[in-house]
Amino acid sequence: MRPPACQLHPRRSTPARSITSPVKFDNVSDDLRKLLLHNWQMMPGDPFDQTYVTTFLLKAQLEDPVLRKTLSGIKTRFDVTADPQTHEVNLVIRLEK
Q1: Domains along the sequence of the chain with CATH
Q2: Are 36 and 10 in contact (CB under 8 A)?
Q3: What is the dihedral of CA 41, 44, 49, 51, to 10 degrees?
Q4: Which one of 33, 36, 84, 94 is least enclosed by Cβ atoms within 10 Å?
Q5: How far apart are CA 47 and CA 89, in angstroms?
Q6: ∠43-49-51 over CA atoms, to 5°?
Q7: pTM recorded for the entire structure
């Protein structure tokens, strides 16, 4: 079970921010992208979960020996853009050596 999504204002009945497009992984091979997408569980329309985003690669490496070896020493950058009017979030994860 995932923790509650980020709310724009906890005292209002404002809807949670949600992912609007599939996550994008930049600076990776097609094979690695397929493997990462296979492990990714936050889908378009799901509430945005910052904790899931920041811990995804660590958890994926613990569960998948191929990812553990491939991602060893790789740095990660997250580009998150949120629209405060529509509550939509787009996410790009960039892997860098």
Answers
A1: 18-96 (3.10.20.310)
A2: no
A3: 40
A4: 84
A5: 9
A6: 125
A7: 0.76
